[in-house]
Amino acid sequence: MRTFGSLLVRGLIVGLFAGLLAGTFAYVMGESRIDAAIAIEEANAGAHTHDHGDEHAASEEEPLVSRNGQRAGLFLATGLYGVALGGIFAVGFTLLRRKLRTDNDSYAALGLAAAGFIGIVLVPFLKYPPNPPAVGDPETITRRTVTYLLAIVIGLLAVWAGVALSRWTARYGEVARLAGGVAGLVLTVVAAYLILPRINEVPDTFPATLLWQFRFASLGTQATLWLLLGFGYAATVARRPSEQKVSV
């Protein structure tokens, strides 16, 4: 019998490596987009200062952390995030393992990772896609944070609704089971999207190509993290032949 401690340690280790590799993806695919967005923000600020003759605005305070420091901190942040997510994933795997209808621990881990990605990442992304640092009103950050967290809760509820309806329709066959799961997920998400407020603070002058390049880099970072976490954890919990029950 594998203990909870061993499962937790596996989750923490896998999460660390997944976080570092996701940070590498974010560095390669996202940092140049962030630099471009910051350059646009600085150019707009300089034009505003020139038009209004504001000498005080011209001497803006330097950021607390330089861009080089932010780039180095990226790997620390994604590594710590990966460790935390790996620990939570291990706890969820331990609590839900017996409720997952499969005898294969690896398949259970992959299914749990897929459900987590859909509920925690994909559903909120489709409603509130992330914006570069230069986009957004600082005065609405609290409202945007609350609505995004609410979208995560709704995403998890949508996954639960899909699983519940899938199991209820399983009596009618595999096709009905699949259709029921998709319907439960989609209907919950659509209803929530209609209720949640619409937030769009992207200026019309901001380049659309740069905006979506940043957003897809952000989604790719999360996809890399969850993909590596799912497959990595599935590999660590795969039972060896010596662990299988053998009847004599």
TrEMBL record:
- Tell me yes or no: is Transmembrane among this UniProt entry's keywords: yes
Residue stretches in coiled coil: none
Question: From what superkingdom does this record's organism come?
Answer: Bacteria
So where does this one cross the membrane? 7-28, 72-95, 107-126, 146-166, 178-196, 216-235
Q: Does the keyword Transmembrane helix apply?
A: yes
What keywords would UniProt list here?
Membrane, Transmembrane, Transmembrane helix
Could you tell me what this protein is called?
CbtA family protein
> What organism does the UniProt record list as the source?
Kribbella yunnanensis
